[in-house]
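#onboarding

Welcome to the new folks! Below is a worked example of what a typical request in this channel looks like: someone posts a single protein sequence, and someone else replies with the predicted structure as tokens. Don't worry about understanding the tokens yet, we'll cover that in week two.

Example request:
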Amino acid sequence: MSYPAILSFDTSAAHCAAAVFAQDALQYSATEAMAKGQAERILVLCQDVLARASLTFDDLTAIGVGVGPGNFTGIRISVSAARGLALGLGIPAIPVSTFEMLRDPFGAEATASELVVVAAPRGAAYVQPFRYGRPSAAPELIDPATPPDHLRAVNLCVTGHLANEIAGNLGGTPNPTSADDDPAARIARITEWKLANGHDLATRPAPLYVRAPDAAPARDKPPVILA
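Example response:
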């Protein structure tokens, strides 16, 4: 039986994380806290985890990458690296959102009605509904104290950030969890599940942005163009 050899990595938060999943098991993973410098570090970390698993880039059959939502610059770093590696190695790069990272990688299809919640700036939250492991609607930005009524569902399970508060407001069951514990390992297991079920195999990874960047116009006046 042939097993996939997956390299997964993520820089969507203040970290560099990488993991190797092969022979139907997690072989090695590492997470390094860092607020900047991910672009210089991520491929070196990938080489490190591959070496510890006694593998090389040529042994890989797929790449899993975190696509956010999260840090705008960090997401672009990982997505660009994943696309480049996938193109060079001739293997698929599988996008894994932060919502998917929060889900149970050992029971990805188990829940018929699940609302996954990711922390957003200024006390807000990003949410996305899932049905049997696949998104059933687009993600949106909400106020956790007053979640919109259209998010209610029968036997709703609320997973992730502020799960207790949001589940209480929507009449659901809370499932508090965090992707901070070994994020690349979570990505690897979700990637393996997607490969086994034919999900997102032809989808090129792209940053998942739920809101626009916090960018202000430049204060400097534009230069004068002389004829």
